[in-house]
Design brief:
single chain, alpha/beta, 560 residues, seven-stranded mixed sheet, RNA-binding
RNA sequence: UCGGGGAUAGUUUAAUGGUAAAACAUCUGACUCUGGAUCAGAAGUUUGGGGUUCGAAUCCCUGUCCCCGAGCCA
């Protein structure tokens, strides 16, 4: 469990402490994280999981993983496996407490019969459209279903025949008999069971009636001995029903506690929409590095530590919140800055020939792996007559304040020597294809005996030793306008640009990276943090950019 | 329109009748073998109006605005 960092206490802690004072649950704290296996977990799920598992951790309690799999047409085993894997990646653990709502189908069925016998549930023959009509609206009360007063015997018989599969989908439902005039729609005789002749990912064709969320969730919590059933404020109106069912059944009733929903700037988390992106091939899959899914963020290079840090730094309240995505970027920079080795990589190579360096001479210079952490040690990298530097690091028109290379200018090659540029070789179209330079033999290690100062330091790789790599630059899927501000009722898919991936081929990285393993993360100096893609082929190193560093030069330039 | 919930810097949260604060974001400056990182500094906040009180973000009254709810989804 991620125990190193703990979230500050929030209002839920106060509720629990109050329960502990009054002894309501005998000092127990037992929560559950209840995803529906109908998609992959995304960044907001990480926050919710952190609330559920975190509360149990903070009070020395337990948290179950329970899949809310009551709708067979949306759910798949692939998602169950994906969710479990992601949760483990985040560091959460539930011992042997992995449950499924579908574990309780038989019990739920028997409880439904109990409610029928108590005269609190009935089989209704209204069609979906009729049910809607009878339900009334915001200001007018609903009307009783004509089937509301069937006898217990008839209800029992009909319900059993529903279960046996005698009726087609949608022809009948089992409903709770509560109050069709109740101001809360959830209490207007809510549907408990619907007929669905569909194969369930776990129970196969054993059932053709499936419980609704309301008829399954509270009882599942009750069976598992959950004390605090945490959910978002969208379920506030469901709490009276949650409690009504437990009370009518005469079973233990947990306390439902609601917290505000979470959204992120420039991020769309809607399952339907993400699914659509995957299906329509706008992204390569659920784990596309641009996706807000946790498998996507992982592939892009985000660490579980950074994501947990984000969860701890953002609060929990009853207000719906929009978390700035910049905070996530801060968290990953914080984490990677400490752990990612600095390596040299040239994304857009420009050849440099050092004319006064012997053609076949190679010098292996020493380089520190992380200037802020000596324990990460040093490595040796080859320096030779032909090198590559970044195209962006040479400017013919070098403006004021430009510390990098230009005609006649001297810079330091990091860990190497000072070089001075004498000539830019151009092709027929006037593009610079090569720089002719000389080096100062006195400047080994980056300093000269005369102590002269060069302000610019560049990263570079030896042309003879460099390893070819492909670099993919990713940004958040959505660009401005912020999709959270989508005009009402419009299909934002038509309105919003999404970032395509930028693939840079012909990148050159220092030779030591040939030994890097998929998932390894690095800081390429000045260009950002990169993660070696897990799907990379052995022949070619593919790096995904996690997050860019702040480009201070362009800021300097903008000011002028 | 009916029911439920919410409102403190740009954002997310503290302050539980006693000096309104932190982090991120923003801006300024310093430093550096990258201009990154780091360090220092600045600006900015109680939804409006009334009331109680020596004293109100907090208690009372009253407005305003925002979110959720009419699935046989969860």
């Amino acid at each position: 469990m991620p125990t190193e960092t703990t979230a500050p206490p929030n209002f839920i802690h106060e509720i629990v402490e109050e329960h502990n004072r009054t002894g309501r649950f005998g000092g127990r704290v037992h929560t559950r994280f209840p995803p529906e296996p109908s998609g992959y977990l995304h960044i907001a799920h990480a926050k919710v999981a952190s609330i559920d598992f975190g509360l149990a951790r903070d009070f020395g309690g337990k948290c179950n993983l329970r899949f809310d799999d009551t709708n067979p047409i949306r759910e798949e085993t692939e998602y169950v496996d994906g969710i479990i894997e992601t949760l483990h990646w985040l560091g959460w653990d539930w011992d042997d407490r992995l449950f499924f709502a579908s574990d309780y189908f038989q019990q739920l069925y028997e409880w439904a019969q109990l409610l029928i016998r108590k005269g609190k549930a009935y089989v209704c023959d209204l069609s979906p459209d009729e049910v809607r009509e009878y339900r009334g609206d915001l200001t007018t009360p609903g009307r009783n279903s004509p089937w509301r007063d069937r006898s217990v015997e008839e209800n029992l018989d009909l319900f059993e025949r529903m279960k046996r599969g005698e009726f087609p989908d949608g022809s009948r439902t089992l409903r709770a008999k509560i109050d069709m005039a109740h101001p809360n729609f959830n209490m207007r005789d809510p549907v408990m069971y619907r007929i669905l002749h569909a194969e369930h990912h776990r129970t196969g064709n054993e059932w053709c009636i499936y419980p609704m969320y309301d008829w399954a969730h509270g009882q599942s919590d009750s069976i598992e001995g959950v004390t605090h059933s945490l959910c978002d404020v969208g379920y506030e109106d469901h709490r009276p029903l949650y409690e009504w069912f437990c009370n009518e059944l005469g079973i233990y009733c947990p306390q439902q506690v609601e917290f505000g929903r979470f959204a992120f700037t420039y991020t769309v988390l809607g399952k339907r929409i993400l699914k659509r992106f995957v299906k329509e091939g706008l992204v390569h899959g659920w784990d596309d590095p641009r996706m807000p899914t946790l498998v996507g963020l992982r592939r892009r290079g985000y660490t579980p530590e950074a994501i947990n840090d984000l969860c701890n730094r953002t609060g929990v309240s009853k207000t719906n919140t929009v978390i700035e995505i910049q905070l996530l970027e801060y968290c990953i920079r914080e984490d990677l800055n400490k752990r990612a080795p600095r390596v040299m990589a040239v994304l857009a190579p420009l050849k440099v020939v050092i004319e006064n360096w012997p053609a076949d001479k190679v010098e292996w210079v020493e380089a520190v792996n992380n200037p802020e952490d000596e324990s990460m040690g040093t490595r040796r990298i080859p320096f030779g007559r032909e090198l590559y530097i970044e195209q962006d690091d040479y400017r013919e028109d070098a403006p004021k304040g430009w510390f990098r290379l230009g005609p006649g200018r001297e810079v330091r090659l990091k860990h190497g020597y000072f070089i001075t540029c004498h000539e830019a070789v151009k092709d027929a179209d006037g593009n610079i294809v090569e720089l002719r330079c000389t080096y100062d033999p006195e400047s080994a290690g980056g300093q000269t005996p005369d102590g002269r100062v060069v302000k610019g330091t560049l990263h570079w790789v030896s042309a003879a030793h460099a390893v070819d790599a492909e670099v993919r630059l990713y940004d958040y899927l959505f660009t401005k306008p912020d999709p959270n501000d989508a005009p009402e009722g419009q299909d934002f898919m038509a309105n919003f640009n999404y970032n395509s991936e930028t693939i840079l081929t012909g990148c050159k990285v220092e030779p030591g990276l040939a030994a890097a393993r998929p998932g390894d993360r690095f800081q390429f100096l000045r260009t950002g943090y990169f993660c070696l893609d897990p799907d990379t082929t052995p022949e070619l190193l593919v790096f995904n950019r996690t997050v860019g560093l702040k480009d201070t030069w362009s800021k300097v330039e903008k000011k002028k």
